[in-house]
From TrEMBL:
TM region positions: 53-73, 80-100, 106-122
Top-level taxon: Bacteria
UniProt entry keywords in alphabetical sequence: Membrane, Transmembrane, Transmembrane helix
Protein name, UniProt field: Uncharacterized protein
């Protein structure tokens, strides 16, 4: 079973990297060149930043799932391990949303709270 979990995790890592790179290069960049994007908060900048972090959140989530599968395949797997990996995944979500939206998209607060709650739950 462990080999299958490692294989699945490897595929998730690969698809995550491909999703971020190819999506940025062939979808997002072309989309952002359009002149008819919605202008939220006075410009299309917020829209572009929101679309960019939302796109890459998917890749981070897949990396988190990969880490969970690797942990599940490990002999020392515990529920606390699951909580720590999930907390880290949401901490990364929070940082990405905070950074790319310059703090204007408040999802970073929710993701940070989820991360902290999971760390506390693991204690």
């Amino acid at each position: 079973m462990a080999l299958l979990l490692y294989l699945a995790a490897t595929l998730l890592v690969l698809v995550s990297l491909a999703h971020s790179y190819l999506g940025e290069r062939f979808i997002l960049m072309r989309l952002f060149k359009r002149d008819n994007l919605p202008q939220l908060f006075g410009s299309s900048d917020f829209t572009i930043r929101t679309l960019r972090f939302a796109w890459h959140l998917t890749s981070i989530a897949w990396l988190g799932f990969a880490a969970l599968l690797i942990a599940l395949a490990s002999p020392g797997f515990t529920p606390a391990t699951l909580l720590h990996i999930t907390a880290l995944t949401f901490a990364l979500h929070s940082l990405l949303a905070l950074g790319l939206s310059k703090g204007r998209h408040w999802s970073w607060i929710l993701f940070a709270v989820v991360s902290v709650l999971l760390v506390v739950a693991a204690i």
